[in-house]
Amino acid sequence: MAQKSESEAHPDPETEGPTPVAPESLSAEAAAAELERLAGIINTANDAYHQDDAPVMSDASFDALKARNAAIEARFPDLKRADSPSEQVGAAPAEGFGKVRHAVRMLSLANAFDAEDITDFDGRIRRYLNLSEDAALAYTSEPKIDGLSLSLRYESGRLVQAATRGDGSEGENVTANARTIADIPHHISDAPEVLEVRGEVYMSHADFEALNARQAERGGKTFANPRNAAAGSLRQLDAEITRARPLCFFAYAWGEVSEPLADTQWGAIERLAEMGFRTNPLTRRCDGPQALIGHYAEIEQQRATLDYDIDGVVYKVDDLALQGRLGFRSTTPRWAIAHKFPAELAWTRLDAIDIQVGRTGALSPVARLSPVTVGGVVVSNATLHNEDYIAGLDNNGAPIREGRDIRIGDWVQVYRAGDVIPKIKDVDLARRPEDSAAYSFPETCPECGSDAIREPGDSVRRCSGGMACPAQAIEKLKHFVGRTAFDIDGLGAKQIEMFFTAGEITSPAEIFTLEARNVDLKLQERDGFGETSVAKLFAAINERRTIPLERFLFALGIRHVGQTTARTLAATYLTLDALLAALKAAVADPEGEAYAELEGIDGIGPTVVRELLEFMAEAHNRTVLDDLLAQLREVEPFDAPAQDSPVAGKTVVFTGTLEAMTRDEAKARAESLGARVSGSVSKKTDILVAGPGAGSKAKKAAELGITTLTEQEWLELIGGG
DNA sequence: GTGCCTCGAGTTCC
DNA sequence: CTCGAGGCAC
């Protein structure tokens, strides 16, 4: 069973006392006593976790205790107790919740904070769609519920799966729990064959108060706010506990559908209501930014009278065909925005300023605060961004906070940006201690002592120690094993720090030799590890000896090569061999074709090229790379989105004036069909789409004998206008 | 050169 | 989630 890891720190019973005697050296008498002790601890922990949602120990300790119990039982089978924890089958599935891949990604929303942001939003959409300022453009507007989003999948009208948002691509399977929520129908009629309904799970104020009163009465853990209560309740491993918690659900969107629900957002929501979903009664249709802002004011006024938390108002383009044309940016749809309410503020004292060193060597100041509640959460740290922010200047040297600097000992006003990240808004000069001094930002790395240098025009100061700086080395390794890179289960920040400090993992390749070295390392005998967790760790590591090219590239942690750029490179060169060959050729000959090709890739400019080549030119990096590759089975070639469109895999260049669509739209459309869009014509170009006014690119394409299409021909090729 | 838009890298608490 | 800056169109 997986214990909840999101609990506060608890003392670990396992590590408190003297080191336990190894099972094989226990006498029968001692073993019996030990089994009794373990049964008590484990069963109590189990109950605390399940019935009270208040874990008393960490995952690792819990697993270690269970493993110890099992080891002793294996040696003394006769001593196995009736209440043995190893017999507790009814408790929960071993792995917690299963993972679910969303057929259509669950995205987040861009945020707006004032009226100007809303008129900008409207303006951006009009520009993208090539609509004039006075053309009609309707939106829907609805309160943004502060709960957690859930995706419900119906097949033939039957609820078959419920999943949390997770990282947007992959969530947790909470089907059994969702079925216990009264607002969620188990069957719907008159629905498409496949329908994913999306909405928000929340807890009403009244139910939240009642639940907390009940919890307090039983001496259980109370929740800080309704959102946490809803999240905690939905993520119960035992659905019967969820059933006892009064959760509600509003439907407001959809994922995969086998046939369109309607022509408009409004119509689709009406349709969901007809099917039996609760939809928010405050939803309105608005004919422009002014109406949206009006509705926002109305909802803000009603906020206090609502029986649920809301943190803003969401606006969506009503016409679904237009939504389709607008499409998505990397994490948000272009056709929607969340207009957030002003953040809650709180005053507290700044006790200290610590400096953290990131994987690129960036020195980031962090404020240590006297704990204070902001928006229902206790905050004790806040980011201070950089040197200038502390001094009261923005990146152009212009004053912010009217130039008031931030000092240790100051009373500061804290808020949670986007209701998440704690930040400091202002300082109270009247309460500033008389002996305070302006903060002086360190000019050497606090971790390794190397000079910390701030390049002219740059806002961050960076440690110049490179891989000789332990902080940078550790952060790079953490990045490597992170969820979006190699994603190695059981090898988190804590373990990386431990292995690095012990000198056991100092480079990526050494992760993969861990198992072979375990003869000497004997991880299973260490605190926090057991036979089972060590076996799991090795299995997780071995699983990643095969890795997709884009993840591999991203994991290397080359500056300016994030997930998107890594993907772009993977999509361009398809295999690691091709990419490495191109990079080596470009290093060898900066005048050559390989170099030109690299710079020609859309989205990759001189800075990224420079970083890539510097990485390849560095002997140390090549060694790290070769050592790592020697440990891997395969770096999988880029798997182009399985598209059978006529332009899939083709490289397309747009030039001249486009009439039916804007350039952005054309690019997004082509990419969604599996094409690569480049900015310049080269030998690799397959199709040039030339509008009126095309110049040098059309000429070059003609010289190279590249297919040139008019915009109309292009639209016919991809099927539809 | 200027002004978007997007991406990368930093951050917190659960 | 936000800020700074890279990339690109105008």
Features:
Helix Hairpins, OB fold (Dihydrolipoamide Acetyltransferase, E2P), DNA-binding, D-amino Acid Aminotransferase, Chain A, domain 1, globular, 721 residues, alpha+beta, 37% helix, 5-stranded mixed beta sheet
State the gist of this model.
The protein is an alpha+beta fold.
What can you see in these coordinates?
The chain is α+β, with helices and mostly antiparallel strands and 721 residues long. Helix content is 37%, strand content 19%. It contains 26 helices and 24 strands. It has six domains: 13-87, Helix hairpin bin (Helix Hairpins, Orthogonal Bundle); 110-340, DNA ligase/mRNA capping enzyme (D-amino Acid Aminotransferase, Chain A, domain 1), CATH 3.30.470; 345-453, OB fold (Dihydrolipoamide Acetyltransferase, E2P); 469-544, 5' to 3' exonuclease, C-terminal subdomain (DNA polymerase, domain 1, Orthogonal Bundle); 549-636, Orthogonal Bundle (DNA polymerase, domain 1); 651-718, Rossmann fold (3-Layer(aba) Sandwich). The protein has a five-stranded mixed β-sheet. The structure holds a DNA duplex (14 and 10 nucleotides).
Query: What does the radius of gyration come to?
Result: 29 Å
Any idea of the CATH topology of the largest domain?
Answer: D-amino Acid Aminotransferase, Chain A, domain 1
Helices and strands: which structural class? alpha+beta
Sheet with the most strands, sense and barrel status: 5 strands, mixed
Low-confidence stretches: 1-20, 45-64, 86-95
Beta-strand residue percentage: 15-25%
Helix segment tally: 26
Mean residue pLDDT: 81
Number of strands: 24
Count of discrete structural domains? 6
